[in-house]
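Risk mitigation, structural track. In case the binding assays with heme C fail to produce interpretable data, a predicted complex structure has been prepared as a fallback.
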Amino acid sequence: MQNISDKEKKTLGEINRKLTNLIITLTLFMGGMWLVLYPPIFLQDQTTIIQVDSDIIEKGIHVASGLIAAEGFELVQQNCGGCHSYKLVTQNKNTRDGWLETIRWMQETQKLWDLGENETQLLDYLAENYGPEETGRRKQLEIAEWYELE
Ligand code: HEC
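Fallback model:
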């Protein structure tokens, strides 16, 4: 065994303490950085996440509702999502009159409220975006000449 003087012992003790402090500080710091970079769910601000999500529009489709993000789709969001899924809207196709009929039917039997001035705009949107398929579909083949099968 080497002989260590009291003074040297004291210096070594101090170095030891300082190293320990340094390690503790570093550990706490890295832990803090980890929390900042990867906050657990309960520390995240959920409202902002939802708000950002609900505004996303991809390829003309409003992602949260699945509605076509054309003029008037906010009105559909405000009036048509409360009782049922937007899928009832997006999976339907109807003429303007057909949509009006559906609305009247919901008003008479399902407690849908009076849509007031918004009704015209809603019908515009629905007929335009969820109308019977005519536009965008391949035209019927025109057959110029019939021939008899033998
Ligand atoms: C007050 C509640 C309520 C609101 C608001 C509402 N609906 Fe409905 N709607 C209903 C109910 C109830 C049904 C029947 C649900 C079912 O069959 O599951 C329905 C059914 C439908 C259907 C299917 C109809 C069918 O023939 O099967 C469509 C399309 C529809 N709603 C569109 C809309 C549109 C567009 C709006 C906004 C203008 C809207 N709804 C707002 C209650 C509502």
